[in-house]
Amino acid sequence: SAVISQKPSRDICQRGTSLTIQCQVDSQVTMMFWYRQQPGQSLTLIATANQGSEATYESGFVIDKFPISRPNLTFSTLTVSNMSPEDSSIYLCSVSGTSGAYEQYFGPGTRLTVT
Amino acid sequence: TQLLEQSPQFLSIQEGENLTVYCNSSSVFSSLQWYRQEPGEGPVLLVTVVTGGEVKKLKRLTFQFGDARKDSSLHITAAQPGDTGLYLCAEVDYKLSFGAGTTVTVRA
Predict the structure, then answer these.
(1) Is there a contact between A35 and A95 (Cβ–Cβ < 8 Å)?
(2) pLDDT above 60 (res A10)
(3) Which residues in chain A (33-92) have CB-CB distances under 8 A to chain B?
């Protein structure tokens, strides 16, 4: 299994600002994903981070609001732009194992509060 | 992508009791996974079920996949405080689609 770290673990931000979340994996992985978990709710996939090309966004999520970088096979960033209180959530990255989507490992998450 | 319904939403039991949580859909699952998420952590995969009627055991946890592959259950025998967490089912397609989860609290 992969070991995944995220930075920061939590942050409190003012509305209108942006926050970049980092995801680091201890081994090279093909697929990396970003999820959002709003308070008391389940996980929703934001996008798939593709190495060397633009991320693939799910319905309801756009690149201007959630720009994603994937410079190599062990690292990705998610930026939450022009934040509002509705963006207060836990943001999690996950990576696939050798079996693809059947085997995913999650980072510990970044708890974001927007005031 | 289909909507997954999990029940109950919350469950609080005493240590040593048994519990069952459910995951249902109106459509057939391609395959289904169960995760447990503890506070401050990401979800951890417990099991993947693929075949209708499949039963898998993981120590005190028993997972069943319905014959028609539209429902699944997770049964915990003799629950312990360490079983406390959010239990999530997820359909596996090209991505994971999660249910809303069942929050389980096991009181010592």
Answers:
(1) no
(2) yes
(3) 33, 41-45, 48, 58, 92
